[in-house]
Amino acid sequence: MSNSSGLVLQPRQKFHQISQVNLLIVTEENDDITRIIATLEAAGLNFFYEVTSACESSFYLSEKVYDAILYDYYQTAASPLDKLDWWYELAPNIPLILITDILGDEVAIECIRSGISGYVLRNNLFKLPDALKNSLISSTQKQTTQLTKIRQQQEYIKQLEQEKLSWQAAEAAKQELLSHLHHELRNPIAAIIGFAGMLKDEIYGSLNPRQMQYICAIASSGEHLLDLVNDYLDLAKIDAQQETLYPEKLAVEEICRASLAMVQEKARTKGLELILKLDRQIDFCVADKLRLKQILVNLLSNAVKFTEVGSVTLQVEYQSQMLAFAVIDTGIGISPDNQQKLFQPFQQIKTSINRRDKGTGLGLALSRKLARLHGGDIQLTSTVGKGSCFTLYIPRTLKEQVE
Ligand code: ADP
Q1: Cα(124) to centroid(ligand 1), Å
Q2: Spatial separation of the C-alpha atoms in residues 176 and 164, rounded to whole Å
Q3: In which domain, by residue range, is 355 found?
Q4: pLDDT tens column, 353-380
Q5: Which of residues 82, 114, 146 is at a domain's end?
Q6: Is any ligand 1 atom within 6 A of the Cβ of residue 334?
């Protein structure tokens, strides 16, 4: 048998629904132990038990895991809950049943609220086996719920990891496809353009008018295809977050003049005036040279393309924290409805100009993405029949970072 400080381990037989139970009985009264054990045995509970006093219970709880604790409490000045620090600290998940004399109403309610699994009055000790059984069942249910939750969380984590792996595999495949396309598409197109050019220049013999017409069509279709592939691959690269900018300190006037030079011939042929208005305080900016020029040339080519009379102006000024490059034309203008769509890939307004001089429909989408990669943007204002103003903004602060 047991005493209050000793360790007793005794097997007991039969308790139908619940298999062997490990109990810790915390008491100061040896007589009570005998009654408690007898009551549980009478109910056929299959159990081991160990007995300890409240002050030594910490030692037992730190050494071993119990299925339940029976706390044999005698009312003192302190509430039973004040004497349960050892349980709260070491084993709050182990169901605890209080065996006590009649408690005041308030104390009883306090006990029920505190998280103990049950309490049995000493003069109703016959209720102990049922109270214990219920506590064990609800504790097992709690554990099963917790286990299910943990399993679900583990499943979820596993699923996330798998998704991450397949996302990484998809990204790797996309990168491979992009660089593959880069070579596989650009190289043959460059060959088509090159060979068509040689034939057009009649290096290997003269062509009849029909042959000349067709070879010119091959060359210009090749160039169109190359533009399309270049723009499309650039867009895909930005979307795959593979596009890297190489910002450097650039002379703003120089980059503006170089961009205007690219459209000069076309503007001259159409009789359009090309104007540069550069605010005097603007000298340098920091941007990716190739990409900045690409955006400006795209906006300027569009302005020239969609303007029949008048002018195309490139006006550069500071607007609060931004450097603003406005490309202003006196062309056909764009209706508010169409203005919403233009920055989406492959959006072209049905105009006679577009039918005649077919672009890729990717220029504005790409330009805006490149502008945003710089930390800026492109905005549009336009009036049908009067003209459009596309403004590229890039941050001024980049300048200070490099200097
Ligand atoms: P692309 O010019 O190659 O067709 P963009 O993305 O550069 O492709 O332009 C998309 C469409 O936006 C053009 O087809 C045209 O309908 C319209 N657009 C662009 N710039 C202007 C402009 N300055 N004036 C009028 N329409 C414009």
Answers
A1: 91
A2: 18
A3: 247-402
A4: 666 666 778 899 999 999 999 999 999 9
A5: 146
A6: yes
